[in-house]
What does this fold into?
Amino acid sequence: MHNKASLSLALLIMLASGYGVITAWSWPWKAALFPLVIGIPVFCLAAAEALWALFGKRPADGRASDFQLSRDLPEKETRRRTAIAIGWMLGFFAGIVLVGFPLAVALFVFLYLRLHGRESWTLSLTFTAVLWGIFYALFDRLLHLPFPAGWLSSWFGLA
It folds into this structure.
């Protein structure tokens, strides 16, 4: 039963993403970029899932196989790591709201490298600058995507 449901879902996702890619193919490049960048990998992953459902090995006991990262860790450590990951995500979302997306990306990368990764100042600053440069060149200069200003910029009249 599990394989039939998995195969059905994979085929449905392949159908939806394939339709999106085919439809977007004739659009102007800027309009088609997002559907193509998302749709093509989603289609490929769904196709891999469909192949896995059709030809993959089933566990001997008949249960669904599952990938678990924390099987060998104590429950307390697993919860701590989960809380840290959720905290970083919430911090990133708060940064987007407060300072705007482009600055939040740079702040997140820098703070994550320095605080969580404990990387050197040189590596953290260099990596952040390079990433922000790529981000700026792609989204602002090449695609001309406007990002709304963060609340702090709006409140202080900087936007």
Remarks:
- The longest helix spans residues 29-55.
